């Protein structure tokens, strides 16, 4: 059966030029993707951090860099689908296939099934990669396996290797959308059965790059791109790289998901009577929201204290709050402390506004962390949920009467959102849950799992799946 061209939706990059046809040197873009996938497997690297290093070392730019990025990221995201396909094409368990060969087979499968790379180029370049990294025997094996993969388009493969969709939707989605089953189940519980497929599909698309103009330091009119729909500070970068934007290089603007911009905005938009001078970001690292809060606070005469438990991440917060010459971007407006937010070194009832951007599973940001879904486990919730409750509890101790705490997660998982807020509310009689108002409260179709809370979604809003709850101390 020949594969139809309609299903090929991704840009081809250098694959269309067919580098590495036949026996020859390994194509550098494929080599870069291979090195990233291997570093994720062997070193536990984060693909989004490993990519710039590898691209720089191999001197890849432009189309080649874009191709390598899509190849590595897409392969990692859709590994669950490709493994099911490869398992049907290999005469032994995939656990018996040498890991380096399996890395390369997954890269080949992504080119064959999801990128516009001609079959001959996808197969021959992968075979050369395997020959150079493993040897001629493995190259022959890879050639035979990828020829089988190339026999069918992706949709036909899914029909063959996934369970029946009507009989076992979550089993089907596990393969078709390449998410672990427990993640499918948690996301379905949060978004509802009617939309879970749209959400899972959105997780497999590369996120758009969004910039934030830090108020008082930059305007969004000076940033290249289209204004964001909901945040008054953002633009969606339509071309080029953020590092080439001078306001970003100078620290006056930054790269920040629109949902994260809305979290900072929701804290600032909440009405507070009386003093409004001391703001605390309890879990600040690496500091994207702190940078926006410091700029907004400076406009209102408020001081932002940015707290982060891990010292090296507290260093990243400082870097986000300073310009390239390490001068505070908004002098006198912010300070950074490395401290445990569950036993904070601050006076009780001394703060007017607190952000708790809690450590979480990150299952709302899977678009930008291609490998994260394979690293997380249900047991992570056993440690994270009590920590989230403790952090929210200490934020409520730190805020003064009449002040506000914004609890946020980049996860829509109900244990981390509704569960944490309900649990903390049940343990205290000095706190009320308030509707999030202002611009953030007006985002359409954003009702969260508790009255007045907000839940953003990649497939509805184009943002990470941020959860926001506003609590006021009585
Ligand atoms: C979701 S991230 C925060 C992202 C950050 N607000 C931003 O916009 O860049 C959660 C942070 O909480 C930190 N963290 C974890 N446990 C903590 C604790 N007990 N006290 C303070 N920070 C903690 C983590 O190291 C991590 O940097």
Present the secondary structure layout.
Layout: H1 28-43, H2 47-58, H3 62-77, H4 79-89, H5 99-114, H6 119-133, H7 136-149, H8 154-161, H9 169-176, H10 181-191, H11 196-203, E1 210-213, E2 226-227, E3 234-236, H12 246-249, E4 253-255, H13 258-269, E5 278-281, H14 288-300, E6 303-308, H15 311-321, E7 334-338, E8 351-357, H16 372-375, H17 380-398, E9 399-409, H18 418-427, E10 431-434, H19 438-441, E11 454-455, H20 458-461, E12 467-473
Parallel strand pairs: 5-6, 5-8, 6-7, 8-9
Antiparallel strand pairs: 1-3, 1-4, 2-3, 9-12, 10-12, 11-12
Bound molecules: S-adenosylmethionine (SAM).
S-adenosylmethionine binds at residues 260, 283-289, 307-310, 313, 340-342, 357, 359.
Explain what the structure shows.
- The chain has 474 residues and is α/β, with parallel strands linked by helices.
- It has three domains: 13-155, N-utilizing Substance Protein B Homolog, Chain A (Orthogonal Bundle), CATH 1.10.940; 171-203, no CATH class; 256-473, Rossmann fold (3-Layer(aba) Sandwich).
- The protein is 46% helix and 12% strand.
- The chain is built from 20 helices and twelve strands.
- The strands form two sheets. Strands 5, 6, 7, 8, 9, 10, 11 and 12 form an eight-stranded mixed β-sheet that branches.
- Helix 15 (311-321) links the parallel strand 6 (303-308) and strand 7.
- It is globular.
- The termini are far apart.
- 50% of the residues are buried.
- Mean pLDDT is 94; it is low at 1-13 and 15-22.
- It binds S-adenosylmethionine.
- The site of S-adenosylmethionine (SAM) has 18 residues, from helix 14 and strand 6.
- Residues 260, 283-289, 307-310, 313, 340-342, 357, 359 line the site of S-adenosylmethionine.
């Amino acid at each position: 059966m020949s594969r139809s061209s309609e299903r090929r939706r991704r840009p081809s990059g250098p694959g269309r030029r067919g580098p590495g046809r036949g026996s020859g040197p390994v194509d550098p873009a494929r080599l870069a993707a291979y090195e990233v996938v291997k570093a994720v497997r062997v070193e536990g690297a984060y693909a989004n951090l490993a990519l710039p290093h590898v691209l720089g070392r191999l001197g890849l730019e432009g189309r080649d860099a874009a191709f390598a990025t899509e190849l590595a990221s897409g392969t990692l995201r859709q590994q669950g689908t490709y493994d099911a396909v490869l398992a049907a094409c290999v005469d032994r368990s995939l656990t018996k296939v040498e890991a380096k060969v399996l890395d390369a087979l997954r890269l080949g499968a992504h080119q064959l099934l999801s990128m516009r790379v001609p079959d001959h180029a996808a197969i021959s370049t992968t075979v050369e990669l395997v020959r150079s990294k493993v040897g001629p025997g493995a190259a022959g094996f890879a050639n035979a396996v990828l020829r089988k993969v190339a026999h069918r388009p992706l949709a036909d493969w899914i029909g063959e290797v996934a369970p029946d969709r009507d009989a076992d939707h979550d089993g089907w989605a596990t393969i078709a959308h390449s998410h672990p089953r427990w993640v499918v189940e948690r996301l379905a519980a949060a978004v509802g059965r009617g939309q879970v497929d749209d959400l899972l599909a959105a997780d497999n698309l590369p996120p758009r790059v969004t910039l934030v103009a830090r108020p008082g330091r930059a305007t969004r009119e000076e940033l290249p791109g289209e204004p964001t729909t909901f945040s008054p500070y953002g633009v969606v970068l339509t071309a080029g790289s953020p590092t080439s934007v001078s306001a970003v290089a100078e620290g006056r603007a930054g790269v920040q998901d629109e949902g994260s911009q809305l979290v900072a905005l929701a804290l600032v938009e909440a009405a507070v009577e009386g003093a409004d001078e001391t703001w605390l970001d309890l879990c600040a690292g690496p500091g994207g929201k702190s940078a926006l809060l410091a700029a907004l606070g400076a406009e209102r005469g408020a001081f932002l204290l940015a707290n982060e438990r891990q010292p090296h991440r507290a260093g990243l917060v400082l870097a986000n709050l300073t310009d390239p010459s390490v001068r505070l971007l908004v002098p006198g407006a912010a300070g950074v402390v490395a401290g445990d937010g569950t036993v904070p070194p601050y006076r009780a009832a001394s703060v007017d506004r607190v952000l708790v951007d809690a450590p979480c599973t990150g299952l709302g940001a899977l678009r930008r962390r291609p490998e994260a879904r394979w690293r997380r486990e249900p047991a992570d919730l056993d440690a994270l949920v009590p920590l989230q409750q403790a952090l929210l509890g200490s934020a409520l101790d730190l805020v003064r009467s009449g002040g506000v705490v914004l609890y946020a997660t980049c996860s829509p998982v109900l244990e981390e959102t509704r569960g944490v807020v309900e649990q903390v509310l049940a343990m205290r009689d000095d706190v009320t849950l308030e509707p999030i108002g202002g611009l953030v409260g007006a985002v359409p179709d954003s009702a969260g799992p508790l009255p007045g809370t907000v839940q953003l979604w990649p497939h509805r809003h184009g943002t990470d799946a941020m959860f926001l709850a506003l609590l006021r101390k009585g």
